[in-house]
Amino acid sequence: MAIFELVKNSFDAGATRVDIEFDPGEASITIVDDGKGMTSTDIRDKWLFVAYSEKALSASDNYRDKIAFAGSKGIGRFACDTLGDGLELYSRTEGGNWISRLEIDWTRFEQDSTEEFQEVEVELGTAPSFPRIANAEPPPQHGTMLVIKGTRQEWNENAIRRLRRDLAKLIDPFGTTSHVAVSTWLVDGSEERMEGVDGPVGNNIADILREKTSRIEVTVADGRVDTTLFDRGRKIYAIREPSPYDELTDCRVEGQVYFLNRSAKHTFTSRMSVRPVEFGSVFLFLNGFRVSPIGDEFDDTLGLNRRKQQGQSRYLGTRDIIGRVDVTAPPKMFREVSSRDAGLIEDARSRALYEAIRRHMIFRLERYVVGVNWQDRPDQDRDTSEGLETDRARERVLGIVGSLARSKDVEILYYDTELVRVADDPDKITDDALKAMSAVAESRSDVSLLGQVEEARRRIAELRASRDEARQAALRAMAERATADARIAALEKQAAFLGSSQDVDVERIQLLMHQATIHLGHVRAAIENMAHEVRNILAAAVMPKEIDDLGDVEDLLATIRQSARRASVSIAGASLSGDRLRTVLSFAPNIRVDLETDKVHGDLLQFLTEYFEVRLVGIPGMPAATFDAANLALEREFSPVDVAVLVDNLLDNARKAKASKIEFKATRKGQDSVLIRVIDDGLGIDRRKVDPSKIFERGYTGSANGTGLGLYSIRQIVEGMGGTIELAGDGTRADFDIVVPGERQ
Question: Percent of the chain, pLDDT > 70?
């Protein structure tokens, strides 16, 4: 910072070159400039004592502490004291006949803390010539040379490289300054230049930034704002608008702000050996000198990072951009905080300046970057503008330029006609794009672009008309196809299990008779078994004379009970076989089941759907029955006769309960099973007469006329398919949950 203050003094003196030579062997630093120089009076009355107006009030043994306490600004003599123990100053003004010479031993100011600066003697005289130094030439006609002796720190290659990097950032971070050259030199006994140590200070990032980034250049001057936006070397647009900043009327503000995508950041880091975020963000220069700390890594004077926290994908932060803003203003129009590292004093002018930087530089660049660059993810890794050639990218650019054209105060000075044009494919042209192009064309009175817009509208109208006609034809074809598909589906559905009887042949009739004979045989066998058990009961009922005690009576009763149970089983079997026989006979006009085996392999839910639609429609005296398969399927082997018996028994129970409707609803149960819930609006279960826990037991009934076999048969059929049936709800309704598994894999 001390060397920077001395370089700044050279700039203030109008120097066109500044040389800084380090001689570790002599422990010296020599700073030479070709500025206007100083007379002896200037040295005595200005250089030595400028800005020192307060006395130190604390007893400090360190002279530099007293100066800091006094609140003085970064004056040259204090910088010299910071760098070394002694100083020789040589200076000559233009046309001067002699060279003024000042010699100071700074250690004399540190011997007595009570002795003030102006009371310590210094040697001020003249010299016949400037001292000779190793690399830089002495001022030819006028200028100043500072020889700092007894340096307080070691100045080696690494220290000088760091200094050059800081000087480049503090004085000219983008290598764009041409009116003054700052050079450093290291005296090491070699005549060869050391790269990065000897020679002019600067950097080569200007070309990097110009060719590999999106950038905006803005000038606020003479009551207007001129803006030009580039994308990786390609000029996108230039506009002019009135300046809304009356506070900036007497100054000129010029800014260049760059957005660095991933590719540009990588290139920057590889060439500069420092990451962009560490280099800085948007630097502010006032009359050629940087205003610190604006632009430093952790500085957020412009409030960009606070804003970015509200939307990472919508706003730019300091890590995304880099740039510089130069302000040329009359003296004291903008004032720096006295500590020289706290920015500008806040007032109406500084607030207007910050607002101009934000609104017309950063936010306008942000709108382009977010609206164009960030919409194309691969663009993050491109270092050329080739991505702008796509129709989608052109439309995004057009949206940006069109919105500017629609602003009443914005004058379009230039736009890239290769990007802002009508796409060749009418499909790629949107109404928003046409509106934007119309706005641009009208703002520029661009007859060619207006013609393109009108031609595009005509082509789009023709395309839409032909597409509407094609769409109507397609809709008609789709409707006809849907009707045909529905008819085919209905026929396929009808033919799956219970199709028409037109092709019933002799073989089918024979199979029907075969199946009926089987079930009739089951009925006959059950009746014979039941008759046998009845005879056993009657025979046992005749009390033998040889029964003398109670034990023989109990044995007899046990025999009767056993025979009665067997008779009951025979009756249940006869009832189920009778139901099956009835169902088989009911299938006679619509046979599509395999009557030879009584089993089929297919979709059980599809069969139930067809059975309800074909067999259970409009049966007199029966509740209205519906089945909802919920678009599910359940592939497995099943007996259509048994499934029909199950449904018919549930339907008959609902009829007995005076139900007007009964519903069967299927839902998925696990991965391979289906739950069928059966609900009717009948009287339900009278718990005073019926125990819900026993309704599936053989022979249990709550009705005086019931057999107690219906629900028992239903459970036998469900369990025969590997499923379960249980009463649903709290037992007050005759609703059932039937779970049937699918085919085992």
Answer: 70
